[in-house]
What does this fold into?
Amino acid sequence: MLNEERITILMGLSGAMVPAGMRKIISWLIRNRYIDVLVSTGANHFHDIHEAMGFRHYLGSELPMTTTSSKRELTGFTMFLPARRSLTESITLADITSELDGIMSSRQFIEEIAKRA
It folds into this structure.
């Protein structure tokens, strides 16, 4: 298969890969043509936008109640992001969405977010 001249390499992305620190590796794979098509869950898009807007993720504990989770933060498994920043993101995305017209693909939608965020 890899000896063929014309080949398209697809990669599926699920799980909390961006918060796990894989954002730069994934973009490197795309830029260096190791993958041609990336199919991802919406959660990874959200986390990528979160980091592109200058926010960060924080590592937590595998225990359900930690001092971190009791300080008004949203939790998803063992990663945390401050609730206030998540609200800021949601408002920003709602503002961008309200300015868009018509039907568009998810790629076009992400490009619009990148232009405005």
Observations:
- Residues 10-116 form one domain.
